Amino acid sequence: MNQVYGRWLAVPFVFSLLLARPLLAPALAEQSSLDKVLALVPSDVDALLIADGIADEYADLRQSAWWKNAEKLPIVQQALQSKPARNVRWMTAMMPAFLGVTLEQLRDDVLGEAAVLALWKRDQKDPIGALIARASDAELLAKLIDTLSAERPGREVDQRAFRGQDYVETREANGKKAYLFQRDDIGVIAGDEEAVRKIIDTMLDGHGFGTSSIRARLRRALPEQAFLRLYVNPRSLDHALDEAPPSNDPFERFLLQRREAWDRVEWLAATISSSPRYELGLHFAIRSMKPPVPTSASLAAFWDRVDDSTLMAVHMMLPIKSVVGIVGEVQSERESREVREAIRVISQFLAGYSVPDVLDHVGPSVGGMIAPGQPGQPPRVMGVVELRDEKPSTLGALPLSMALENSGVAVLVLIGVELSRKEKTPWRVELELSEGERIHYLRRQEAPGSWPQPALAVTSHQLLFGSSPKALAPWLGGEKESSDLPAWFAQHFPAGFRPILWVNASAVRTYLEREGDRLLVLITRDDPEHKERLAKRTGPILSVMGLLDRLVIGVNVTSEAYHLTMTLFPTPAES
Question: How far apart (Å, rounded) are the C-alpha atoms in residues 466 and 370?
């Protein structure tokens, strides 16, 4: 990828510096300030960072639960006293001397209405870019432009014109150039003369990005409440992919060999939304978009068994055979003896089934969850894989579920042998019945109640594995009491939304406050040095998690685009 893209795409971090976070605004409205700015952006733009309503968004942030809770975090207070934070405060104090405006004026009065960063790719040349902003205070914008274009030691200035529009060229001692002009309350700063002339052409001739068909599609597809939008034209990256040097990495070669999938992508966008939750989204459209697929029964059944006390749950519709094929193709080049040996051992117990034959009847529903255990006990961990049917192989083998159970027990035996060798303590496979189903599990003979106890159960329609028999028991048998989680998803997300990951951050914090010390002992086997290292790594993460009540990652498919989102629900502010 061209390194200069990285230089221009670093500009969003300047926004973050100015605003203490990405501070841009809600929906795109007809004839808004943003529309007037986008009208100046040439329609052939390759990448576009769109920001709107900085001042209002910042004011909302200061009143939000996020901000109030974050200010109390020790990690945030320490960061505010760090050397980088002191440097930022020094730069902020020096801004009036160098720019002629304060940080607050730049944020609220110059960038406060609307701002966009536009990039264009050029063949065999560095990309060109420009920042276009509509200010709420035109006089202050003029003061900023005058300061940036004023002559001073080490800077030369030329007055130029194109099609009747005056602009200024500045040349610094290090050779860097900038091109600036102001038209009423709109200011333009470009890093290349070609960029500023493209903008002037668009300003005079019309037909900019604001009225293009791609922008109309983005307005229909992207969330209205997004305060930050990044649009990328996938075709602008084709050249970089085509010119990528040969790689010895099998995974990189695998991706480059499947360019046809990338070539089908028509547009790509990312968004950040607020009000009152925060949502990060990745959105893309492909040629010949397929209609949304109805929610599967296995998906609904999984989330119907996850209650609000669960710490974490994950579920996805995964093309297991394709994924295994991809991993196998990449892994085979790395000559992993362990993978080949595991497949060989498992195959011996599949009663005539080949591994590809098994994969034909496994999935695509895959899930797992972590739930709190009883007081003083570790959490319950389980996973579930859907089995499609009971078809025996052409060799007249056992039903698939029985073949999988046999191979699963064999794997447990192998694990038990290895644990016995390493720990000098006998492990054995035992059988327990739950809801009429068999659960095979490993048990340490000298400590029957110890954890973990790897467990396995295979029914006619699912393969379950977990940390103990108790972890699997709630998922076996008949109808269970329905949870209110599906209704919660329906309340907070659009129709057709499919959750992939759900994290109950509040429950995680409560559980760790109660059982954290015991978990450290279990995980580190009471090794003081290991405990100290782990505590240092997890402490800051758990501190930041104090800002969250829930975290949800999911996907939604509409007629316009595919949407992958991560939604953060803040912890209510303390009174």
Answer: 10
Tell me the sheet residues that pair with 443: 428
Phi, psi of 438 (to 5 degrees): -90, 135
Per-residue pLDDT, 196: 94
Give DSSP secondary structure letters for 445-472: TT-TT-S---EEEE-SSEEEEESSHHHH
Query: What does residue 42 show for φ and ψ, rounded to 5 degrees?
Result: -55, 145
* Element of type H or E holding 34: helix 33-38
In this structure, are strands 455-458 and 437-444 parallel, antiparallel, or unpaired? antiparallel
CA proximity to 285, closest of 573, 557, 550: 557
Spatial contact of 128 and 195, defined as CB atoms under 8 Å apart:
yes
The amino acid that residue 439 corresponds to is I
Would you call 433 exposed, middle or buried from its count of C-beta atoms within 10 A (0-12, 13-18, 19+)? exposed
Could you tell me the two tokens for 436? 């009429």
CA–CA separation, 128 and 195 (whole Å): 6
- State which amino acid sits at residue 211: T
Rounded CA-CA distance 323/99 in Å is 54
pLDDT number for residue 24? 32
- What pTM does this model have? 0.80
Residue 19, pLDDT score: 40
Q: Which amino acid is at 540?
A: P
| CA–CA dist 22, 17 (Å, integer) | 9
Residue 254, token pair as written in the block: 């695998």
What's the CA dihedral at 472, 473, 478, 480 to 10 degrees? -90
DSSP bridge pairs for 455: 441, 466
The strand pairing partners of 433, in sequence order, are 438
355 forms beta bridges with none
Mean pLDDT, consecutive 10-residue stretches, the chain (575 aa), reads: 43 41 36 87 92 80 78 78 86 84 86 88 78 92 91 91 95 92 94 93 91 90 86 84 68 66 88 85 86 68 84 83 58 55 71 72 84 82 81 59 83 85 85 87 77 85 88 77 83 90 89 76 70 72 79 91 92 63
C-alpha 312, offset from chain centre: 17
Coil/strand/helix, residue 341: helix
pLDDT of residue 248: 67
Alpha-carbon span 428 to 445, nearest angstrom = 7
In this prediction, residue 252 carries a pLDDT of 65
The residue extents of the domains of the chain are 3-221, 320-361+375-475
Q: For residue 160, what are the β-bridge partners?
A: 167
Gap between the Cα atoms of 402 and 387, Å rounded: 12
Contacts of residue 146, defined as CB under 8 A and 6 or more positions apart, other chains included, come to 100
Distance CA 51, CA 361 (A): 48
Write out the two tokens for 474: 């709630």
- Helix pair angle (505-524, 528-545), 10° resolution: 170
